[in-house]
Amino acid sequence: MSLRTVSELLAAPTRWYDGLAQYQHQGLAHVLATVVAVNGSAPRALQAKMVVTQDDYCDTLGGGGLEHDVITTARQLLNDEIDITVPKISKRNKNANDDKDNIRESKPTKAVRRDAVYTKHYPLGAKLAQCCGGSVTVMFECFNVTPPMSILVFGAGNVAAALMTILAELPCQVDWVDSRPEMFERYLLDNSNLPNKSIQTEDLPQRLNAQPHLNQPKLYKLPAHIRSHIDDDPVDFIRPFIEPFSNQSAQRFILVMTHDHSLDFELVRAALDAGSDANSLATNPSNSSEVSLPYIGCIGSATKAERFKGRLLQRGYDKPIVDKLTMPIGLPVGGKEPMAVAVSITAQILQHYHQK
After folding, report:
1. Domain hosting residue 82, numbered range
2. DSSP code per residue over 7-25
3. Same domain, 184 and 70
4. Domain XdhC- CoxI spans what residues (predicted)?
5. Of the four listed, 1, 11, 219, 244, which is most buried by Cβ atoms within 10 Å?
C-alpha cells in the first residue's frame, strides 16, 4: 500500500521557480529555458523562463510555435539527440594570403554537451507560424541529466528514520518499505489542519479508496522524493526496482535494515537473484568482471555478515555475486548511534554513486 505525501498530492507547479526548486530537490532531469535576447516585437520579455522535463513543463515563453520548439529542443537535449555542425576554415594553398584560397568547410557534426549552455535563435515569422515580426534568443540549461540516486530502503526503525532526515536534503528518489503501519505514525499529518482537503485527496489510487477503514486518506510529512509504502510482502518491491533499469545499476541502491534477520536474508537473496537475472549472469556467473549489480547493502554486525554470506554460498550462490553484498553496511566512521550509522551509510552510497 503506497502512502501519499503532502507534496505529491498538491497540484503540479505552474511557475518556473516552483518547478525548478521541485525538480532540483527530486533530482529529476530538466531544462531551464530563458529568453536572453529580444529584438523587436516578441510574446515575452527578456529573462522570461520556463522549465521542461521529459513529460511535463511549467510556465510559458508565450505559447505558439516558439514554445512548441523550445519544449521539443529541451527534450532533445535531455535525450542527447541534438547535433551541431561546426564550421572550420581550410587552406588549399598554405602559402597564399588571398581570401579566395580560404575555403569554408564543415566538420562532422558533434553532439551538444548537455552539461554546457546551449542557445538557439528564433525569428518570429512564417517558419514558426508567428507574425510578431521580431526575434528572440533562448538559452537552454540542462540539470540532473545523469540519473539521480534511486534508493530502496527496507525497514523503518531508528537508523532508517535517521537516514531519511539526511536523504531529505539530497537529490535522490527514495522508496521506503515496512510492513508495520505504526512505524510511520510519527510522520502522520493531521488532515484537519489542511486548508483544502479536496486538493489533498484527488486522484488517490482506487485500492486506497476501496478500503472502508481508510475513508480519509492518511497524509505523511515527508518530502515529495521520499515515498513510503506499507506492505506485508516487501520482497515484491525488488524486481520492479532492478529489472527495468539494469543499465543504470550504478545509480540504484538497495538498503536492507528491517527488524527481522530472516526477512533481511530473504530480501538480500531476492536482490541478488533479481540483479543477476537482469544482467544475464546466470549463464556465466563465474566471471567476476561481468558482475554488475546495484549496490546491495544490509545492516548488521560482522558476525551476521559472515553467517549471511556463508548461507548464500551453501545455497549455491557464486562467490563473485556474494562478494557484491555490502555487509556490514556503511563506512567505518565510528559510532553506533542511529544518526552516526545513518551518516556512515549515506557517505558510502554517495561514494559509490560518484565513483561510477
Report:
1. 29-143
2. HHHSPPP-SHHHHHHHHHH
3. no
4. 25-80
5. 219
What's this model's pTM, rounded to 2 decimal places?
0.64
User: 37 and 182 in one domain?
Assistant: no
Three-class secondary structure assignment of 312-343: HHHCCCCHHHHCCEECCCCCCCCCCCHHHHHH
Cβ-based neighbours of 163, under 8 Å, separated by 6 or more: 153, 255, 342, 345, 346
Residue owning grid cell 521520499: 226
Nearest to 272 by CA among 308, 247, 307, 303: 308
Indicate the number of domains in the chain. Answer: 2
CB atoms within 10 A of CB 218: 17
Q: Which of 143, 173, 201 is the last residue of a domain?
A: 143
Q: pLDDT, tens digit, for every residue of 103-125? A: 444 444 444 555 668 899 998 87
DSSP assignment, residue 69? H
